[in-house]
Amino acid sequence: MSDLGEATQPEGQRIGPYLLLSRLAEGGMAEVWLARHEGPGGLARQVVVKCIKGARADDPRFRRMFVNEAELAMRLTHGNIAQVFDFGEVGGQYYLAMEYVRGVTLAQLRKRAAAAGLRIPCPLCAAAIREAARGLHHAHRARDERGRLLGIVHRDVSPENIMVSFDGQVKVVDFGIARAETSVRLTAPGAIKGKYLYFAPEQARFEAVDARTDVFACGVVLYQLLSGRLPVRGRVLVALDDISKGRWTPLSELDPSIPEGLARIVDHAMQVDPAARHPSAEALERDLGGWLGREAPGTDASALARFARYLFAEEAREMGFDPDLPPGYARSLAPWRRPPAGGEAAEGVSTGAEALAETEVAPPPTSARRGLLLAVATLLVVVLAVGALLLLLQRGATARRPAARLGSGPSTGQVP
Description:
By secondary structure, the protein is of the alpha+beta class. The chain is globular. Mean pLDDT is 80; it is low at 180-189, 340-383, 389-393 and 395-413. The chain has two domains: 14-99, Phosphorylase Kinase, domain 1 (2-Layer Sandwich), CATH 3.30.200; 103-356, Orthogonal Bundle (Transferase(Phosphotransferase), domain 1), CATH 1.10.510.10. Strands 1-2-3-4-6-5 form a six-stranded antiparallel sheet, with helices on one face. Strands 7-9-10 form a three-stranded antiparallel sheet. A hairpin with a 2-residue loop joins strand 1 (14-15) and strand 2. The protein has helices spanning 60-73, 106-115, 122-140, 201-204, 211-227, 236-244, 251-254, 260-269, 281-295, 301-311, 313-318, 329-332, 353-356, 370-397, and strands spanning 14-15, 18-26, 30-38, 44-52, 84-90, 93-99, 103-105, 152-153, 162-165, 170-172, 179-180, 192-194, 359-361.
């Protein structure tokens, strides 16, 4: 989601049974609103309503994408997925109504913790991804009315799309670019959409994706939460090349203070070859659950929510949640204080992923414009070759400096 521009819907307008209260965010395809659903007998509840942006509401292709998203999302009912309640069209305006999660995204939690001089405790990072993996596995195993697997893959797992509610739940949100593998593609052949710094190697190579693609992205998110930085950074061509070839510093080398067992789980999830990863999100969930059971028993989503309420006390109160922290909670976080600002340790405030935002990379069709494809491919090879040469020269100049360390910290620690 990007900075808010001019709204296409005015506050106070109704769309179906929903009264738009305030705009929360906007993306390339839609605006997201906080709304109130007014039911019979004066019953009302707050929901989130996603509306196709005015500029694209007349585009049949985008309308089909929106309908496809709704039909897929409404099949998913799980405690770790933000529930979609309703879908409709009023006067040419398509909308999707979904659960309003009173909490923050992992991206917001990570930034607020870094600004407060804190690392998110390792067990809480593991608990967050364990819960997200549960929701993803449910989506991956979703079936149609005849019992056939739908083959749903989120494709855009990132800290912005995982929410922590103040009442102790972790929810995956926005299956906005999820697609059933058997469905007809509605974008150009080979289209890849999402935040490319979280792409799996097969996405970076324009290959087929499956549940293990989301497993890899979970590994990237966990890598970032634990270390404060992404495994790969840079502009699209360089980043995709690094991702496709597995060129990143292993987590255990980047930060030796991260528990060895947890670093191994991240490395397993982030294998370049999908066959070498966890075979499913459920397997990743079990792996993380086993580590938590051994190293930090009792750490769950409620402990993560407590940490969120501590960092977002004012916002939690505004949403009706008392921080409800035990005495000495702030002191108990002392082992997780970050090193002094500077170097990689301070990078948790911003990794650059938000600035690079969402990207779509789509190769042209192969039949009607084969000559153009050859020319573009040739040009791309030249660009990559020049870029690689410059990169090698730059790396040679830096004389292979050792990977930056984040500073010492506890191996696991007791989570408050």
